[in-house]
DNA sequence: ATTCTCACA
DNA sequence: TGTGAGAA
């Protein structure tokens, strides 16, 4: 299938499918005219890619893990091999750490703002949301 | 319709 | 991580 068909089949834009190839996530064959030719397995792969991105994994990591995953009636199942599980646990702890750092930043900012508001007293209006 | 590259959020 | 535009 060509890129437009895969885009329609997966709901992922053609642009993004080319990007995934650039990131080493997909390896479509090439027709004589240079057009990409995707297999049916690629459609499944795209769903797995989406699932792993949603789980917060970077594309470089997904490129490594994708071959270590298979599909079981529409469900992504990671291989039980120890290195695969270890990699997923590693990502899990990375995200946990990130959440902790964000919580710390949130509390610090809450505290700074609370101090400012305490000194200024009650204010009439809200500040505009940060743009940049 | 598809390819690639440059630039940008 | 993901997109738009422009040229081929």
From TrEMBL:
Keywords for the protein's UniProt record, in alphabetical order: DNA-binding
Species name: Actinomadura luteofluorescens
CDD domains documented for this protein: HTH_MerR-like_sg3 (cd01282)
GO function terms (MF aspect): DNA binding; DNA-binding transcription factor activity
All copies of domain HTH merR-type, residue ranges: 1-68
Pfam families per UniProt: MerR_1 (PF13411)
UniProt-listed InterPro entries: DNA-bd_dom_put_sf, MerR-type_HTH_dom, MerR_fam
Protein name: DNA-binding transcriptional MerR regulator
The keyword DNA-binding appears for this protein: yes
Lineage: Bacteria, Bacillati, Actinomycetota, Actinomycetes, Streptosporangiales
Chloroplast is among the record's keywords: no
